[in-house]
From TrEMBL:
This is Heme response regulator HssR. Pfam families: Response_reg, Trans_reg_C. Member of the two-component regulatory system HssS/HssR involved in intracellular heme homeostasis and tempering of staphylococcal virulence. Phosphorylated HssR binds to a direct repeat sequence within hrtAB promoter and activates the expression of hrtAB, an efflux pump, in response to extracellular heme, hemin, hemoglobin or blood. SMART domains: REC, Trans_reg_C. It comes from the Bacteria. It is found in: Cytoplasm. InterPro entries: CheY-like_superfamily, OmpR/PhoB-type_DNA-bd, Sig_transdc_resp-reg_receiver, WalR-like, WH-like_DNA-bd_sf. Residues 125-223 form the OmpR/PhoB-type domain. Residues 125-223 bind DNA. It comes from Paenibacillus chondroitinus. Residues 3-117 form the Response regulatory domain.
Length: 225
């Protein structure tokens, strides 16, 4: 049973989301603010959280920060009226996995929820297939149809992180903290260097994926359609 928690102070929005998610066979719990959500999660775990930003007592920014600190691998989807790039960047920096702007199409929300659940489950398997390319974390190698590649550890971890969440944008700060650690004292341009090396390594070998630069935000891995 897959359970989605919806956190929004607008009861009508919560009900709208609930109806569409339940229609897809998902179980839904609801909270009207961040404090209530954290309390409910202690007794009723969720597989994914859909959260608003503007809420009383504890807003979505703080809730996102708390959820990422307490539940490192819990997928998070922000639904908010704020569409400016600066708010999207802040959301990704705090750890959200995806971002949807109000007013939204409920069917798009369902699609994004399903995509996040799929990415999370792929990430938990330790082996990711991108077309005919297999990224194996148990062996720390990348397998193509005609060869196997062993990458430097940080390059492998960066590729694995991006491939675990295809189409998701990661900021440089997120990647530094998640791969090098929050105590890393180097320049976040280290990410640029490693992305450049991955591109040079794989672009001549496969067209199954590419690592794209999202100007003003960061990087994402795009899979061949």
């Amino acid at each position: 049973m897959t359970r989605i928690m919806v956190v929004d102070d607008d009861a009508d929005i919560r009900e709208l989301i609930r109806v569409y998610l339940v229609g897809e066979g998902l179980t839904v719990t609801q909270a009207s603010n961040g404090v209530e959500a954290l309390s409910l999660l202690e007794t009723t775990p969720a597989d994914l959280v859909v959260l608003d930003i503007m809420m009383p007592l504890m807003d979505g920014w703080e809730l996102c920060r708390e959820l990422r600190a307490r539940y490192e691998d819990l997928p998070l989807l922000m639904v908010t009226a704020k569409s400016e790039s600066v708010h999207k960047v802040k959301g990704f920096q705090l750890g959200t996995d995806d971002y949807l702007v109000k007013p939204f199409d409920p069917l798009e929300l369902v699609m994004r929820v399903k995509a996040l659940l799929k990415r999370y489950r792929i990430n938990a398997s330790q082996t990711i297939s991108v077309g005919n390319v297999v990224i194996d974390r148990t062996a720390f190698e990348v397998r193509l149809p005609d060869q196997r590649l062993s990458l430097p550890l940080k390059e492998f971890e960066l590729l694995y992180k991006l491939a675990s969440y295809p189409a998701q944008i990661f900021t440089r700060t997120q990647l530094i903290e998640q791969i090098w650690g929050i105590d890393y004292e180097g320049d976040d341009r280290t990410i640029d260097v490693h992305v450049k090396r991955l591109r040079e390594r794989f672009e001549p070998l496969t067209e199954e994926f590419r690592i794209s630069t999202i100007r003003g935000l960061g990087y994402r891995l795009e899979v061949k359609a």
